[in-house]
Specification:
Largest sheet: 2 strands, antiparallel
Number of helices: 45
Strand content: under 5%
Number of strands: 6
Structural class: mainly alpha
Length: 962
């Protein structure tokens, strides 16, 4: 055993072994070259040797980055200039692509997006019906009544004529009581039937399907579904028109060039036949829809004037009695007409015709329509909204890339009574730039509008949405806002008011001083002071808060407004208020200044953080707690009072009492207080006074009191360690000892394992790392006169036995080996590092024999513990770990202990022999490296400690002989 252990301090200097260096003139990534000289010695050529599979060469065309940059410099093109040039080229290509995409979408004015919004908005729960001869309840869409195919041409033509003559109402089936989903499925079946019939060369059947689909648009029995019905039916008509056009195009332009004229004439004749068939349709509505669907086919006729055709169709639509049906036919005409010509006059005429019908007040507001609305239980507001998609599209088409007619439209609207729907269409369809340029005129029109079914709140809400995209000129904004709110403030219904103000909040927050936002919040608080009213509008209030936060550049300026926190109190429900508070802290984290010093801002943020802290319960999920903790911690880190350290500490004390439910926040507070103590130390440094010493002790006391409130033991231990180190730097020895002692006592409470991501991981590695860090700190910690020699180290050795390491763990032995390192340092005359102002044990004891005796006794105790572990490893046949640890202990004995002592020498030799028994389990180079290390120790000590060198030389002879 090592009962005669005696630490032997070394006096040699530590040297560094540098790697061998050499000069080089070539870059390691430079491409190798081979120089070839001809036999005459006059011609020289070189070729590159390609390095296969080199990612740099493959990526950069055989040139490394440094060489590439050098070449660019030679060509007077620096990397930034090249990047700018590449970016410009990319932007040009992107712009060309975008312009190409826009030009392709010009014809339909982005109809696809509109059709989806229509289908989502206009739905119904009422029963629908379909009248068609091509669907049955049992086998709809299966083609059971398909036309038999005739091979003889004459019979085929005769049969088609008979089909047209046989188109009677008696063959039509009526499918009733369909749900909306069933209706859509039936329409899709008709779509599939049309395409299938066309590909089966059954053109007449396809035409009949298109006609019957068009007739469905005369059905307004379910008004609320009509816009969606229009979209579904016109999708089928679009497919029909495309099939006819592609067929004619194929007939006209296919075949050899010599027969092109004959093909063109044949296509023209076929085209005329199609239009003759359409003209033979008796009912106006299907005749209009089908002709509009194949409108593009007019190009195959010699004399084709789209302007005249579109004007003719516009006049024909006047024959439709129902204004709702008529306006959607006009919408379809405008949409299809935009794909064949850029003429705007027919579009404007369609809009004027609609205005004429609307202005007469004899159709839209007629008694018959009111009766139908009463029967279907549809109010005027809902009915007028049905016109929106069609009128909006027509207006948008008229104004698209051309404002020639828009001024005239606005003038006409001024003279129309009940012009609410038209004003709504103008606000939704025309560009925000057009509205902003005429903001004062528009707001005057809206304030004077009185229309049944369209409230002023709807109009001003639409105007607010437009203002969020484009705003008036700076000199006009104040007057415009004042005039608008003269009307908005007259709304007595809280729902109308808050819905309208929701859209204006962004305009106000982004374009006016903070006082206007504060005034808006005051008005909202006044209007929604009742709890029941607020509960109905939490979503609108949340949207207003979001828009104000996103558009307010100075978040601190917003927080100090007198109406901001009262506005937050409108969120009466805890869950809703918590979300609002969380949103405020998120924006504050992103947009605030680096530090906050304003006490009003800090007070507001403390109030917001307290709401979040109090909202946490035992049922709150961990992710929610983590997010809230991070937001509050960010706020705490941004509070900074400069050199007023006492005020800073007072804030941390207040925060500790406010955020009592958040461990992470407590951890942040401890970290910040420790940082505060170190900041005070850096200010006074060597000029410490009683006041600064008391402040440092107050900081450490704050940490010491706060840490036990944290539930995570690992976090407690880490913070105790950090606080003890801070106390040590500030020469607060008693506080440092208390922190280190508390940290060590917590080791016994640590769980043996933690579950992370569903996997159980032992705590051994954490404990070993923590205790190693603690040992490095304890090197400079002076002994307490009340506790005795190396009190904290003895406590550490005790707690090692209280922690349950995993089976076959090297944790205890690793710690014991590190303890030997620490004890050896304690035996030195001068420690390798110190803390300024702290008298460590080297100065305190001055290598007193009694102290060294205590150190040696502890070394004996530690070695015995290691030997016990080695014996246990051998009993468990863990020979590899036993061999490694034997060599580690042997090296420490050689470095630290006096080999002149017989028992120590024999222990080192026995450890070597034990390791050699199982040397085959280790790497073949392991033992030669150990021998080399021993030789280095001998070479360093042979000139300074002859007696120890002789013992070491004798030891080397024994192991080499073995």
């Amino acid at each position: 055993m090592a009962s005669d252990w005696e630490c032997v301090p070394r006096s040699y200097e530590v040297t560094k072994n540098y790697l061998q260096s050499f000069h080089t003139f070539d870059h390691p990534l430079k491409v190798s070259t081979v120089t070839m000289v001809d036999s005459k010695g006059t011609r020289v050529s070189s070729s590159s040797i390609s390095l296969l599979n080199d990612p740099l060469l493959l990526t950069l065309d055989g040139t490394d980055p440094l060489s590439q940059f050098a070449r660019q410099e030679q060509e007077l093109i620096d990397p930034l200039t090249q990047m700018a040039s590449e970016y410009e080229t990319f932007q040009k290509s992107k712009t060309k692509k975008r312009e190409k995409d826009v030009s392709l979408a010009d014809d339909s004015f982005n109809w696809n997006a509109k059709r989806l919004s229509i289908l989502n908005k206009f739905t119904t729960s009422e029963k629908l019906s379909i009248s068609t001869s091509f669907l049955s309840v049992s086998n709809a869409g299966t083609g059971t009544d398909a036309i038999k195919v005739h091979t003889v041409v004459s019979d085929k033509l005769k049969f088609r004529l008979e089909q047209l003559d046989d188109f009677e109402d008696t063959s039509i089936r009526h499918l009733m009581d369909l749900t909306q989903q069933d209706y859509i499925q039936r329409i899709e079946q008709l779509n599939q039937e049309l395409v299938q019939s066309w590909h089966n060369d059954q053109r007449v059947k396809a035409l009949k399907i298109a006609i019957q689909c068009s007739k469905m648009l005369s059905d307004t029995s379910v008004l609320s579904f009509y816009p969606s019905q229009f979209v579904l039916i016109t999708d089928i008509l679009d497919i029909f028109g495309k099939l006819v056009y592609e067929r004619l195009k194929q007939k006209a332009y296919s075949g050899p060039e010599s027969s092109r004229q004959l093909n063109t004439e044949s296509a023209r004749d076929t085209c005329q036949n199609w239009f003759f068939k359409v003209a033979s349709i008796r009912e106006l509505l299907p005749r209009l829809y089908v002709e509009i669907a194949i409108l593009k086919c007019y190009e195959f006729l010699n004399e084709c004037s789209y302007e005249n055709i579109l004007q003719r169709l516009t006049l024909m639509i006047r024959g439709i009695g129902d204004p709702l049906i008529a306006v959607y036919v006009r919408c379809y005409l405008v949409r299809i007409g935009a794909t064949v010509t850029s003429i705007k006059e027919y579009m404007y005429n369609n809009f004027k015709d609609f205005l004429t019908i609307y202005q007469s007040n004899q159709m839209i507001f007629a008694g018959s329509i009111r009766s139908e609305l009463n029967r279907q239980r549809v109010d005027m507001t809902k009915y007028l909204s049905l016109y929106g998609p069609a009128v909006n599209f027509i207006l948008q088409a008229v104004a698209y890339k051309n404002n020639f007619y828009t001024e005239e439209i606005v003038k006409q609207v001024k003279t129309i009574k009940n012009n609410g729907p038209i004003l709504m269409a103008i606000l939704q369809a025309l560009t925000s730039e057009f509205i902003a340029a005429r903001a004062s005129e528009i707001v005057h029109l809206l304030s004077q509008s009185h229309t049944e079914g369209i409230s002023k709140s709807q109009l001003f809400r639409a105007l607010g949405l437009s203002m969020s995209v484009c705003v008036p000129l700076c000199e006009e904004r104040s007057g415009f806002l004042k005039e608008a709110f003269l009307t908005i403030n007259t709304f007595t219904d809280p729902s109308e008011y808050i819905t309208c103000v929701e859209t204006w909040s962004q305009f106000i927050a982004s374009n006016f001083p903070i006082s206007e936002t504060n005034r808006l919040l005051h008005e909202i608080i006044t209007r929604l002071s009742s709890t029941k009213i607020c509960e109905k509008h939490f979503q609108q209030l949340h949207n207003i808060l979001d828009k104000i936060l996103e558009n307010q550049k100075n978040i601190e300026l917003l927080l100090i407004q007198e109406n901001f926190l009262p506005f937050l109190d409108l969120f009466h429900k805890d869950a809703v208020k918590s979300e609002a508070c969380k949103r405020i802290l998120i924006v504050y984290k992103r947009n605030s200044h680096e530090y906050t010093t304003d006490p009003v801002v800090i007070s507001a943020l403390m109030y917001i953080g307290k709401i979040l802290n109090d909202s946490l319960t035992a049922l709150t999920v961990a992710d929610e707690k983590r997010q809230i903790s991070q937001l509050i911690s960010n706020f705490i880190r941004k509070v900074y009072f400069g050199r007023d350290l006492e005020c800073q500490l007072s804030f941390y004390v207040e925060a500790r009492g406010t955020f009592s439910n958040l461990d992470t926040v407590y951890g942040t507070l401890v970290q910040n207080v420790n940082k505060l103590a170190m900041e005070a130390y850096s200010i006074v440094h060597s000029q410490r006074t009683r006041k600064t010493q008391a402040f440092a002790k107050a900081c450490i006391a704050f940490s010491f009191i706060t840490i036990p409130s944290i539930s995570c033991i690992c976090q407690q231990m880490d913070l105790y360690m950090l606080s003890g180190q801070v106390a040590l730097v500030n020469q607060c020895m008693g506080q440092a000892d208390a922190c280190f002692e508390a940290a060590l006592n917590l080791i016994a409470e640590l769980p043996t394992a933690l579950e992370i991501d569903g996997k159980v991981k032992p705590m051994d590695s954490y404990v070993v790392s923590y205790l190693s860090n603690m040992l490095a700190t304890l090197v400079v910690v002076p002994d307490s006169p009340e506790e005795g020699v190396l009190y904290l180290l003895r406590l550490l050795l005790d707690v090692i036995q209280k922690f349950s390491f995993a089976a076959n763990s090297l944790g205890p032995v690793t710690v014991y080996l590190n303890v030997l390192d620490m004890l050896y340092v304690q035996s030195l005359e001068d420690f390798p590092y110190h803390i300024t102002g702290v008298i460590s044990n080297d100065e305190l004891y001055g290598r007193d024999p009694k102290f060294l005796n205590e150190v040696n006794n502890l070394c004996v105790y530690v070695v015995e513990k290691i030997l016990q572990q080695l014996k246990q490893l051998g009993a468990e046949q863990q020979y590899k770990m036993q061999t490694i640890l034997s060599l580690e202990l042997m090296l420490r004995i050689i470095r630290y202990a006096n080999l002149y002592k017989e028992q120590t020498f024999q222990l080192a030799l026995n450890l070597w022999l034990l390791a050699r028994k199982h040397e085959s389990l280790l790497d073949v180079k392991h033992f030669p490296r150990i021998i080399k290390a021993i030789e280095n120790i001998y070479n360093l000590t042979k000139d300074t400690n002859t007696k120890h060198a002789q013992s070491l030389h004798q030891f080397m002879e024994h192991i080499n002989h073995k």
